[in-house]
Amino acid sequence: MSSEVRFITKNFGKYNPDSIDSYISIGGFSALKKAVKMDGEDIASVIAAAKVKGRGGAAYDMGRKWSQARAVKGEHKLVICNADEGETCTFKDRELIKNDPFNLIEGMIIGAYTVQARDGYIYMREEYRHLRPRLLSAIKQAEEKGFLGDNILGVKGFNFRLHLYSGAGAYVCGEGTALIRSIEGKAGRPRMKPPFIKVSGAFALPTCINNVESFSIVPHLLLDDSNVYTNCGNGESIGTKLVSVGGNVRKPGVYEVPFGTTVREIIFGLAEGIPGGRRLRLVQFGGASGKVSDERILDTPYTYDDLKAAGVDVGTGSLLVIDDRTSVIDFLRYTQAFFSHESCGQCTPCREGNLHMKLLLDKLAAGEAHPCDIEKMKKIANIMTLTSLCGLGEAAQNALLSAMKIFPEVFAVGGAH
Amino acid sequence: MQTEAKQAFSISDELANQIDQVLAAHDHDATQIVGILLEVQDLIPQQYVPEAVAFYIAEKLPIKVSIIYDCLTFYSSLSDKPRAKYPVEICRSVVCRVNDSDSLLDTLKKILNIEVGEVTYDGRFMIEEVPCFGACDVAPAIRINGKVYGHLDTPEKVRSVLSSLM
Fold first, then answer.
1. B137, pLDDT greater than 50
2. For binding [2Fe-2S] cluster, which residues are annotated in this chain's numbering (chain B) (predicted)?
3. Binding site: residue ranges of B?
4. The Cα angle at residue A166 between residues A165 and A172, in degrees rounded to 5
């Protein structure tokens, strides 16, 4: 059984990712050539018509984002590619950069043309440093061929340069304002919004940030005359999605699936199921900050709406499969350890909340929790969600709060202490 | 031992030259300080940024040394304390945990005869627990100086990785 499609990943293995000539030989940069004959607003419309949603996790309407970025006034604007893929069990952007770096660059140049940006930044996590030489060389080759620089493709005034910046092991830098501070050469602590990034981003310039996968869709979409992309999926979930499947499965990896594929097909078809005849305990969707479900989710179609109705989200597109050797509590403790480590410590709810959640989970794991401890966990989780400064603190307790709904028995502790 | 190393550290002409090259490659652009520090850290045998080096970079860029220390202490891939020639980073995130990274950690401790955070007597290895580095498809995994070693589910495989570095 295979329901994989090749749209975003169609170039994988088709060319030598270290050679721009090889990329051009398979039709590379023809989307850019088409784009520069179009009006920027029309490019944004193509993306909006295909209902592409940001692939970093927030699922913001990408056509709308580009249209808004285009409308912002400013002599000097920026586009940024967020390649700080830090959510656990998420490694799709790694595969895109590794196998198809020129397509990402082409997508960014089209983005720059659309929103009228002069400089672009790829902010890649330190953990992917082995991909740095490839990206640097790709940028250099694109400069030599005139796809980056001044008057690109002979379009007067279309000047765009690309810079590669490295993260340094801070998950919080995947958050837009933290990422921007990091690019400015500072510690990546998030800041309050407004001002919004689209108006005042890196170096206080209007900035449009997209994920690697989001940029990578664009060249293919512009050339998709036979509507391969828009014929996939339905409703609000059009096209295909890269999913990263990991944990206790036989074949972990990145798969491109049409929206509407069932969760069962992804886990038991593409990833070939759980080894050793063990049973599924839970699935976490969308990274460490994602929500969980159990086998009840398996026949749900993988779409934004269906997953939401089932209590989880697409998020970064990861599916972490956990079998019955790991208890729900241990899973939550591992996830909590991640957030306790990654909280930047700037705002109180996230810093203190994560600390106390760890202590409460340890108490629960030791069988020493009282019903009031469960209430305390709910209270702290809700305070964190409502009052944290950035998305990290807001989303840190998603796994716990969803697990409380799915596995109430785990939290049903006796009251007679 | 660590204090001695810190006091003893002085910048050789060769290192100064190498640092200058890194700074030049980054156009002496202070916004690129994180990338600069990562590259300079690679030049130091114990994989850290000594105080003397931090001050040297601060003077050359120029940039306030407090900004350098803000970065050194904020970003977990950067260190202002001596590490080892081969810091063995073991992923302790959930994906590796459910693929038995606990046994992998035990194996590492046994083979190297050190605990997490400790350095071997010869300064070659240390064990560091780190969050997910995106090698979930080859869990359980470790990373040494940027290189990922995956599927480490037997002591033999771990031993062979460590021996390849000797």
1. yes
2. 91, 96, 132, 136
3. 91, 96, 132, 136
4. 115
| Domain range annotation of chain B | 2-74, 86-164
Residue A414: the pLDDT is 78
A94 contact B CB<8A: yes
Q: Tell which residue, A127, A21, A289, A200, has the closest CA to residue B142.
A: A127
Tell me which of B23, B33, B34 to substitute to probe the interface with A (most A C-beta atoms closer than 10 Å). Answer: B34
Token pair, residue A373, equals: 């401890």
Number of domains observed in the structure of chain A: 3
Question: Is B62 in CB contact (< 8 Å) with chain A?
Answer: no
For position A391, which CATH number holds?
Answer: 1.20.1440.230
Same domain, A68 and A191: yes
Asked if B33 is an interface residue toward chain A (Cβ–Cβ < 8 A), one would say yes
Superfamily of domain B86-164: Glutaredoxin (3.40.30.10)
Does A88 contact B30 at a Cβ distance shorter than 8 Å? no
- Return the closest-CA partner of residue A179 out of A62, A289, A82: A82
Look at A129 and B146 and tell me if their CB atoms are within 8 Å. yes
- How large is the ipTM? 0.94
Q: Is B4 or A389 the better-scoring residue by pLDDT? A: A389
CB pairs under 8 A between A and B: 133
A14-65: per-residue pLDDT in tens?
A: 999 999 999 999 999 999 999 999 999 999 999 999 999 999 999 999 999 9
pTM: 0.96
Q: In chain A, whose CA is at the least distance from the CA of B134?
A: A91
